[in-house]
């Protein structure tokens, strides 16, 4: 038995907000878990501090599955992003502790490495096609085997995912949500041109990905998928909102372009039909928003039965603690597909020293025991929380539109 003696939530903003749970034990070993929920950070912080931490004290940190079941099955209110991010943080921290006690990197406890490294995709974005492809060439020169292409849409003033910062974009960009205008017609014309130019300039040896950010109806997504087929995209992500999983049947009927979805999913129930009916090819649920390592492994196990591979979300709002956890998962899981990677700012990396590293298109979690990610609490305290929201979308006639 290794007794949980204390736990606390650390909120810090080294360039963007992160919520981290630290669980302490009677053996001096502590564990970290990411609890960051972009734009709703303090709700998870309160859920943990006010409702979860009091129930953890005195429990055996080794009983990861039992604590998971206690927090999920034992609660009247199940699922939802706030609950599942809080459970995920506890789960990650407990796996971190178990790894440190065993003296092994987490992936060893998950069955060991199934591959030598974790293929990641980089983000190439630009206002014009030329600018986007220049960025893609920059990443390919650094060894990336997979690149996501996002370009400004001619006729629209701004496009989500296209930023001034060439290395990354910060999704939550204002203290009250900023507003973007959206036109499906303009967008649908622009993407095939981007991919045609992409294949011409970048060739066929690199995987090209694209994120639709839930902006299409199923039939529009079917048409875009069909238009992109000649350029063999690796995946089309978040084609349509997925509350109604049956939506994807319609997309599937019309295209063989591979489909990825799930960065906003938080439980196996959000993707059960999508997986069982083989309506998607990649599941993008990730450790922090989908109930931790314990629950994500369950999702991956189901997905494996149906030829669905993993493609964990990895934008900058997922902290280095989550990235560390995701890399151990990615390295071990049999049906791994790809991992998103948008590296953090130097300030963030300094607050969260980590063992994972990049080489030749791959990330590796490193050999440090547990997750291999730490937090410098004194430095974290220098960056107080700042409210920040993702932008919203309106159609050109002023109607509110899908995120
Ligand atoms: C995007 C993200 O990385 C992605 O695929 O969809 O920018 C996402 O919108 C943010 O992480 C939201 O928090
Ligand atoms: Mg996305």
Structure keywords:
alpha/beta, Enolase-like, domain 1, TIM Barrel, 16 strands, globular, binds D-mannonic acid
Overall description:
- The chain has 403 residues and is an alpha/beta fold.
- It has two domains: 4-106, Enolase-like, N-terminal domain (Enolase-like, domain 1, 2-Layer Sandwich), CATH 3.30.390.10; 109-367, TIM Barrel.
- The chain has helices spanning 41-56, 64-72, 81-102, 106-109, 129-141, 184-202, 218-228, 247-254, 272-276, 292-305, 320-332, 346-351, 377-380; strands at residues 4-12, 18-25, 30-34, 118-126, 146-151, 179-182, 207-211, 235-237, 259-261, 282-283, 309-310, 339-340, 357-359, 362-364, 392-395, 400-401.
- Strands 4, 5, 7, 8, 9, 10, 11, 12, 13 and 14 form a ten-stranded mixed sheet that branches.
- α1 packs across α3 (81-102), α5 crosses α6 and α7 packs parallel to α8.
- It is globular.
- Residues 211, 237-238, 263 line the site of magnesium ion.
Overall shape? globular
CATH architecture of the largest domain: Alpha-Beta Barrel
What's the pLDDT, averaged over the residues? 96
Integer-rounded radius of gyration: 20 Å
The assigned structural class equals alpha/beta
- The biggest beta sheet, please? 10 strands, mixed
Question: How many strand elements?
Answer: 16
CATH topology of the largest domain: TIM Barrel
Number of domains: 2
Q: Which class of the largest domain in CATH terms? A: Alpha Beta
């Amino acid at each position: 038995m290794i007794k949980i003696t204390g736990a606390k939530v650390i909120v810090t903003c080294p360039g963007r907000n992160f919520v981290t749970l630290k669980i302490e034990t009677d053996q001096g070993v502590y564990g970290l878990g990411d609890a960051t929920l972009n734009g709703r950070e303090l709700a998870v912080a309160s859920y943990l501090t006010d409702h979860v931490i009091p129930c953890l004290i005195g429990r055996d940190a080794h009983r990861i599955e039992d604590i998971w079941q206690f927090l999920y099955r034992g609660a009247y209110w199940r699922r939802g992003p706030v609950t599942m991010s809080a459970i995920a943080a506890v789960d990650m921290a407990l796996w971190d502790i178990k790894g440190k006690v065993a003296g092994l990197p987490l992936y060893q406890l998950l069955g060991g490495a199934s591959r030598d490294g974790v293929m990641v995709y980089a983000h190439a974005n630009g206002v014009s096609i030329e600018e986007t492809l220049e960025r893609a060439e920059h990443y390919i020169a650094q060894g990336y085997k997979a690149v996501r292409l996002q370009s400004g849409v001619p006729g629209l003033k701004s496009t989500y995912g296209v930023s001034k910062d060439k290395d990354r974009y910060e999704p939550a960009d204002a203290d009250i949500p900023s507003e973007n205008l959206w036109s499906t017609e303009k967008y649908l014309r622009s993407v095939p041109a981007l991919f045609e130019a992409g294949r011409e300039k970048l060739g066929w040896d690199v995987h090209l990905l694209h994120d639709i950010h839930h902006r299409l109806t199923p039939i529009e997504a079917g048409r875009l998928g069909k238009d992109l087929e000649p350029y063999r995209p690796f995946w089309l992500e978040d084609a349509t909102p997925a509350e109604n999983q049956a939506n994807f049947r319609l997309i599937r009927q019309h295209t063989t372009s591979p489909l990825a979805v799930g960065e906003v999913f938080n439980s196996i129930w959000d993707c059960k039909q999508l997986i069982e009916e083989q309506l998607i090819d990649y599941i993008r649920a990730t450790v922090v928003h989908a109930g931790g390592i314990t629950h994500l492994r369950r999702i991956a196990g189901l997905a494996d039965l149906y030829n669905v591979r993993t493609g964990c979300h990895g934008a900058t709002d997922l902290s280095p603690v989550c990235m560390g956890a995701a890399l151990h998962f990615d390295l071990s899981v049999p049906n791994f597909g790809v991992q998103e990677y948008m590296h953090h700012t130097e300030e963030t990396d300094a607050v969260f020293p980590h063992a994972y590293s990049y080489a030749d298109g791959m990330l590796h979690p490193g050999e440090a025991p547990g997750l291999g990610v730490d937090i410098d609490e004194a430095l974290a305290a220098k960056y107080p929380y700042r409210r920040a929201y993702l932008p919203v979308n309106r159609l050109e006639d002023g109607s509110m539109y899908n995120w």
